[in-house]
Amino acid sequence: MTAAVGPAEAPRTHRERGLGEADGVVPDGVTVFDDDVPAVANLAPDLLSAVREAAADAKNDGITFYVNSGWRSRAYQKHLLRKAVKTYGSTSEAARWVATADNSPHVSGDAIDIGPSEASAWLARHGASYGLCPIYRNEPWHYELRPDATVDGCPAMYADPTNDPRMEQ
């Protein structure tokens, strides 16, 4: 999802096929502190706590963490995958950008996509001290909690989700 259009860059205020905020669609301007938005409220508690701590510290540097995507319902994840297959022309190419509902860490609340680029760049520099790690080289905004990173640093990134063993079905 770098220069290509991916789920984190899709219009977040759409209501396609009945999908909305209750499914994890994120309205513009949502921060990690917006508890009334399901995409934030349904994140895993430890991930949310770490992201909020990092966001509070980033604010001291003039950086605001906006949520491009967080928790997603299975229906929303399936919708994003169908859309990616249409965009990229095949299931195998779409898999570089969108996981299945069975495998996506967004569906389990274990992943967050942070924007704008200044915020994800701040996390790239400082995230390990909060246990927040970028997972995929092609998705610099996608972060997951890796508690050991506070001591050992973040693990090597996968090129894209197709290289992540968690994505195997």
Output the radius of gyration.
15 Å
Kindly state the number of beta strands: 4
By DSSP (H or I, 4+ residues per run), the number of helices equals: 6
Proportion of beta-strand residues: 5-15%
Anisotropy-based shape = globular
Provide the residue-averaged pLDDT: 91
Sheet/helix structural class? alpha+beta
- Order of helix and strand elements from N to C terminus: HHEHHEHEEH
The share of residues in helices is: 25-40%
| Terminal CA distance | 22 Å
Query: What is the topology, as strand order, of the major beta sheet?
Result: 1-2-4-3
Low-confidence stretches: 1-15
Give the biggest sheet: 4 strands, antiparallel
Outline the structure in words:
The protein has about 170 residues and is α+β, with helices and mostly antiparallel strands. It has 6 helices and 4 strands. The longest helix is centred in the N-terminal third of the chain and has 15 residues, at about 45-60.
In short:
This protein has 6 helices and 4 strands, in the order ααβααβαββα.
List the topology elements.
Layout: H1 38-41, H2 45-59, E1 66-69, H3 74-88, H4 91-94, E2 112-115, H5 117-126, E3 132-136, E4 139-145, H6 149-152
Antiparallel strand pairs: 1-2, 2-4, 3-4
